[in-house]
Specification:
alpha+beta; Ribosomal Protein L31e, Chain: W; four-stranded mixed β-sheet; 3 helices; 4 strands; 33% strand; ribosomal protein; Ribosomal_eL31_CS; structural constituent of ribosome; Ribosomal_eL31
Length: 82
Amino acid sequence: MEERIYTIPLRDIMNKSKRTKRAPRAIRKIREFLKRHMKAEIVKLDNSINEKVWERSIEKVPPRIRVKAVKEGDVVRATLAE
């Protein structure tokens, strides 16, 4: 079992995507980041991460998010680190 804490930058989403697609794109970016850094195919995000991203609606994504990722076999489970 491997455990790491990452700070994932989401600021570039504000500039590169439409206002109405920012939160879904941020969730996808978090998944891709964890796949790349933890070297796993399956990434399961906790509901707390989803609530943090959607906290200020679809248009105002937080600039960064701290995530605690635990790898068990081939599955990565991520929760909010705070």
